[in-house]
Fold this sequence. Notes:
Helix content: 55-70%
Number of domains: 1
Amino acid sequence: xxxxxxxxxxxxxxxxxxxxxxRGDYEETLKITETLVSDVHDLIHKAVGWTLREIxxxxxxxxxxxxxxxxxxxxxxxxxxxxxxxx
Length: 87
């Protein structure tokens, strides 16, 4: 049970940063994401991938910079890539 509580706390931590993402402040999200890159739980992978995708929608350079630094250590679930079309 304790593991589940701790996992929920980590997931809540990363999901709550959406407040900052909406306002264009990505630093806290990226700090938390950096600590969660090596997490073993699938729900954490999905939450981190979602926040990275949301950052990318607003600032692709921030997202790409983070991914270039960490992609080798990130689980596949975090690396869900979206189709990007040129305008």
